[in-house]
Design goal:
By secondary structure, the protein is mainly alpha-helical. Helices cover about 55% and strands about 0% of the residues. The chain has helices at about 20, 50-70, 75-95, 105-130, 155-170, 200-210, 210-220, 220-225, 230-260, 265-290, 310-315, 325-330, 340-345, 350-365, 375-390, 395-420, and strands spanning about 320-325, 370-375. The chain has a two-stranded parallel sheet. Helix 3 (about 75-95) packs antiparallel against helix 4 (about 105-130) and helix 4 packs across helix 10 (about 265-290). The longest helix is centred in the middle third of the chain and has 28 residues, at about 230-260. The termini are far apart.
Length: about 425
C-alpha cells in the first residue's frame, strides 16, 4: 500500500504545535522586549537568555520539526501498522493462554503477556494515534478521529483534557491539570495545607486505579460536582465514561473469565492483575516525565503574551526523559522522550529517539538543562518530590513527624507559614 502523506504547512509565522492547541493559544511572531516565561525556581534557570535568543531557539526547533515531517512516508506507516499488529497478536495469544490459567505457568505467562499488550495499546498505539501523530497517513482505521483504546476514558474526552489543555499549559501551576492531577502539591510556591500529608498515599492509590483516576480527572469532578445535576453536557460526558467502564469490565471481568470455564476465577485474577500492572507502569512513566527533580513549573502569567520560542522553552525545561533500551522506549510509548514529545506532540513517536541528540545539542548551546536518567532513578526522584512537597518547605520527614508529635497540626501550619516560598514575580 502506498501512503499519501499530508505534509504540515507550518511556517515561522505560526506556532508549530498540535492543531487543537493552535486554536486556543495565539503566539506572537515578533520578538518581545521582555521574557514572559516565569519559572517557579530560584535562581532562574533561563535568566541568562535574552528575548532574541529565545526566538532564535524557537526557529531552530521549527526547522527541525519541518525536516522530520517532510521525511514522513511508507517506512513510518509500516512501523505503526507493525506495532498495532504486534499488540493485537500479543493480546490474542495471552488471552488464549489464560484459558488454561488454572495451570500456574500459564497464569504467569498469560498475565505478563496481557499486561504488556495493554501497555502497548495505551502507550505506543492509543496515546500516539489519538494525539494525531498518524493522521498524515489518511488511513481512517488509524486516525485520531476514529481510534478508541482499552482504558476507562473515552478517547474524545481524553483528547480535550490532554491534547488541548495539558499540552497548551504544560506545567503551569493552576492551569495544567496533569500537574498533580489537582490533588497534589507540586512546587514550593504552592501554599501548604494539612491534606497534603496524605499525598504519598493518594498518589499510590491513584497509581493502582490509574485508568479510573484519569477518567475522573478528565471529567473534572472537583470543578463540576456542584453543578452535576444541572449540566447536561457534563452529564453526557459522565454517561459516556460509565458506559466505557461497563464495556471494559464486561470484557475483562465477565466475558473472558467465563470463556475459561473451570478456570474462570484464575482468569479473573489474571485480568485484574494485568490491569493493575498496566496502571502502575503508565503512572510511573507519566510521573517520570513531569515530576523528577530538575523539571520546572511555571506561574500563570507565563502564558500571557507567550511567543513561539517561549512556548518551546517551557516544554523543554518542564519535561524529563527516561534513558534505556529500544524496547523500553516502545513500551513507554516513546514518552521516555517526554521532552521531545512536549516539543512536538503531533510528531510520530518513532522519530523522537532520532531527534533527541539534536535536542540535547541545542540545549547545551543555549545553556538549558536536559533532564534525563534511568527509569529507577527517575521514579525515585519523582516519588521523592511527592514526599518532599507533602510537608512544609525546608522540612525533612523526621522533622515533620517530630513537629506533628509535639505540636500537632498547628505546629506544622506554623512551620509552613515560616518557610513559605514567595515567588519573585507575581502569578
Amino acid at each position: 500500500m502506498t501512503v499519501t502523506a499530508k505534509r504540515p504547512t507550518d511556517t515561522l509565522e505560526r506556532a508549530p504545535r498540535h492543531h487543537e492547541i493552535n486554536s486556543r493559544l495565539e503566539l506572537h511572531s515578533r520578538t518581545p522586549e521582555t521574557v514572559h516565561t516565569h519559572v517557579n525556581a530560584n535562581p532562574d534557570p533561563i535568566g541568562h537568555l535574552s528575548p532574541e535568543q529565545i526566538e532564535e531557539f524557537g526557529r531552530e526547533l521549527d526547522a527541525l520539526r519541518q525536516e522530520v515531517f517532510d521525511s514522513l512516508g511508507e517506512q513510518d506507516a509500516r512501523y505503526i501498522r507493525r506495532v498495532i499488529a504486534t499488540q493485537r497478536y500479543l493480546e490474542l495469544g495471552s488471552r488464549g493462554v489464560l484459558l488454561f490459567s488454572g495451570f500456574p505457568p500459564a497464569w504467569i505467562l498469560g498475565t505478563i503477556g496481557l499486561a504488556a499488550a495493554k501497555v502497548l495499546d495505551n502507550m505506543e498505539v492509543g496515546h500516539n494515534i489519538i494525539h494525531g501523530q498518524w493522521d498524515w497517513m489518511r488511513d481512517p482505521k488509524i486516525h485520531s478521529s476514529t481510534w478508541e483504546w482499552d482504558t476507562a476514558t473515552p478517547a474524545a474526552q481524553w483528547k480535550h483534557s490532554h491534547n488541548e489543555i495539558h499540552h497548551t499549559y504544560t506545567n503551569v501551576v493552576g492551569k495544567d491539570n496533569d500537574l498533580g492531577y489537582g490533588i497534589m502539591r507540586v512546587d514550593e510556591a504552592q501554599k501548604w495545607y494539612p491534606i497534603y500529608l496524605a499525598q504519598p498515599a493518594l498518589n499510590f492509590l491513584n497509581a493502582t486505579f490509574f485508568e479510573y483516576g484519569i477518567a475522573a480527572y478528565d471529567l473534572e469532578l472537583g470543578k463540576n460536582w456542584k453543578t452535576r445535576k444541572t449540566n447536561p453536557a457534563w452529564q453526557a460526558d459522565a454517561a459516556a465514561v460509565v458506559a466505557k467502564i461497563k464495556k471494559q469490565a464486561l470484557k475483562d471481568y465477565v466475558l473472558f473469565p467465563l470463556l475459561s470455564g473451570p478456570n474462570a476465577l484464575a482468569t479473573l485474577g489474571a485480568n485484574v492483575t494485568a490491569n493493575i500492572l498496566r496502571n502502575y507502569w503508565t503512572h510511573s512513566v507519566i510521573m517520570c516525565g513531569h515530576f523528577p527533580e530538575g523539571v520546572e513549573t511555571f506561574t500563570r502569567d507565563s502564558i500571557e503574551g507567550e511567543t513561539r520560542g517561549e512556548w518551546y522553552l517551557r516544554q523543554m525545561i518542564g519535561s524529563g526523559n527516561i534513558s534505556g533500551s529500544k524496547l523500553m522506549h516502545i513500551m513507554t510509548g516513546n514518552l521516555s522522550f517526554q521532552i521531545e514529545h512536549h516539543l512536538f506532540p503531533d510528531m510520530p513517536s518513532n522519530h523522537y529517539a532520532k531527534i533527541a541528540p539534536r535536542i540535547q545539542e541545542i540545549c547545551e548551546r543555549y545553556g538549558l538543562r536536559y533532564v534525563s536518567g534511568p527509569l529507577p532513578k527517575q521514579v525515585f526522584s519523582a516519588w521523592k518530590q511527592i514526599v518532599r512537597l507533602s510537608i512544609p518547605n525546608e522540612t525533612t520527614p523526621p522533622q515533620a513527624a517530630k513537629i506533628l508529635l509535639t505540636k500537632g497540626i498547628k505546629g506544622l501550619k506554623a512551620r509552613a507559614r515560616a518557610t513559605r516560598y514567595r515567588r519573585p514575580r507575581s502569578a
